[in-house]
Design a protein that fits this description.
It is a single chain. By secondary structure, the chain is mainly α. It has 21 helices and 2 strands. Helix 8 runs parallel beside helix 11.
Length: 432
Amino acid sequence: MAGGAEWRAKIQKVSTKIQKNTYISAISNGLMALMPILILGAIFSLINALKLDPYQNFLESTGLKTYTSIPATVTTDLIALYAVFSIAYNFATQHKQQGFSAGILALMSFLLVTPKGLLDDGVTKAFGYSWLGAKGLFVAIILALLVGKIYTFVLEKKFYIKMPKGVPPTVEKSFAALTPGFIVAVLMLVLTAIFAATKYGNMHEFVFSIIQLPLTSLGGTWWAMLICIFVIHLLWFFGVHGTLVVYSVVGPIWVALGLENLDAYQRGVEGTHIIGSPFFPVYVLIGGAGATLGLIIAMLFAKSTRYKTLGKLAIIPSLIGVNEPVIFGMPLVLNVRFMIPFILTPLVSSGLAILLTTLGILPVLHGIQVPLGIPVLVNGWMNGGWRVSAFQLVMIGASFMIYYPFFKKADAEALEQEQQAEAKAAATAATH
């Protein structure tokens, strides 16, 4: 146990450094803050594009189709705009500076480098949606961090216009943002001119071709997902929240892939990315980290009071993907006996999902970011229909079978301990 505690301390130290890195933390927290936007956009996309002919005929005949398509265009289709503000805001607040000004400057920077044009009338100026959604997400991240760094550096070094005494703090803070704002504006104009002189034409095209496309191609591979799942659950075994640590790094890639699938779903065609943000909650977290729903079902039939009680307490939270009562209550953390099924079960589930999707037996997930609290089977149906729900049901059975041999022995030992404790209590009572 001493060696395990030492390894746990080392892993926690590394994971803490990753989570506390201001750049990674700003990206992670900034994207997490967008969950309401992503969820609302995904739900309305489902309402608008649900593939039931009578339902679609009803929407079109009543004219509701025009309105049900609007929420997605101002949520997921504009995700880069929300992201650039949110990430810069989080970066500045981590440095104890005013986040709102940083967010506004980041948004301005994003719009400065985004291609603009005129409508057919030759007068009306317009932004195309092309770079405002998932395709512009990496530019949003880069600019948010760059602007956040410039903003916080200028304010920390006090390189700004200082106001006379007696000026209200809100006015002083507004003027303090002028200097970094001017620096940022000039820098964005220079970048725009530089990229305009290249074959790419603009910053968005360059970042998408050189950075975003290769990263999403790499992050969207089956082996990258399986490596992430392995690392996540290895960290969980040592008591570290592996999902948060790994998602901090790969989250932007998975979100971009999921949004591209969602865009395809809105257009009535199947997405092209097997891997994306919904893949994890639908295929990996069946009952929570370790895909433990099968284990918890086994607990309901335990012979020992300890595990039967824990199973009754954990079954409802586990149905919505919350299984901390089992991870820390059983515990599964640093429990060598359950290490193999804890890591193996989600790998089996995700590996089979990837294989069956590749073969066309399972559909590509729609990209709908379902909120925490949507039960298993329901979240599968929302992202791919009855076939995904049926697969989840099969994997619950597989989880039961993988965990059961390990659990059976633990249950027998717990029952023996309880019987010994009862016998000892009875003997003590008899002597009195």
